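To close the chapter, one final illustration. This time we ask the reader to focus less on the individual chains and more on the assembly as a whole: which components sit near each other, and how the overall shape emerges from the parts.
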Amino acid sequence: MSAKYLEDFAAGQIYRTACLRVAAEDIKAFAAQFDPQPFHIDEAAAQATLFGGLAASGWHTAALTMRLSVASEFAPAGGIIGAGFEELRWPLPVRPGDELCVEFEVLEVRPSKSRPGQGLLKMRMTTRNQDGKAVQVAVGTLVVPRRPG
Amino acid sequence: MSAKYLEDFAAGQIYRTACLRVAAEDIKAFAAQFDPQPFHIDEAAAQATLFGGLAASGWHTAALTMRLSVASEFAPAGGIIGAGFEELRWPLPVRPGDELCVEFEVLEVRPSKSRPGQGLLKMRMTTRNQDGKAVQVAVGTLVVPRRPG
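The assembled structure is written out below.
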C-alpha cells in the first residue's frame, strides 16, 4: 500500500477496511477506563437499561473504527488527521461478538485556500456489523497533503 | 449527586467536571491500541509531522471527556447516552502533561414526540486544557428519561 496525496482522491471513491471481532471483555475493559456506565460494564446490570444488555461505548466503536482505518489501504500521506466531524451517530449498539468493518466514501476533495501544501477530504465513514447494518456513521473532514512539486 | 430527569434541565445551565492530567504514557498506550500513527506513539517521529511533537489521538481526548463526564454531577437519570453529534472538532492538540476539564452547556431541552417517557437534551461539551483553551468541542444530543408519574 502506498501513501496517497490529495490528487489521488476523487469524490465517489470507496475504500474498505479489514474487519475485527469485539469480545465482551474488550467492551468491559474500554468502558472500565473511559465510560464506566452499567450498560457498558456489567451484563446483568445492562439488562435493566435502555440497551437491554451489554453494549459497547460509542467512543469504543469510534476508537475501533480508527484502528481499522489506520491499518487499511485508505492511507493518505501524512496519516489520517481529522479536522472535525459534522455528523457522528450510532444507529445501533455494538454487542459482544459483533464483527465490525468500515467503509470510507470520498464525498468531496478540495485544495486548502490558506495552506497551499494541503487539501481537505470530506468523507463518510460507515462502520457496519456482521449483518451489514450501520453501527456508526461519521461524516468528517481530513487534512491531506498535496503531491509535492 | 442525584440523578436528573428531563424536567431538571433548562437551556443555559452550565455543568463542570473535575480535571485530569494526560501523561505521555497514556497518549502512547491509547494510540498503540486504537490509533497507532507516528504523531501519537513516538516523540521523535512526531517531530517531523504536522503536529511537531507528540499529541493525543482525538479519540483519546473524546474518551477522556466521557470519563470526566460520567464522574461529574451532570448525571442524567439512566446515564449519559448520546443519540449523536452534529459537531465534533479538535481545535488544538492535547500534549503530554496537559490537564483537561470539561464544561457542559445545555442548549435545548425537548420532550420526544415518539417516546413519551423520554426527552432530548442538546448540549455543547467543551474540553479545555490548563490554559483554558478548547481542545475539543462537541455539540450533540443526549437521550434523557422524563420524571416518572
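Chain B has a mean pLDDT of 95. The beta strands of chain B are 14-21, 82-89, 99-111, 118-128, 134-145. With these observations in hand, you are ready for the problems at the end of the chapter.
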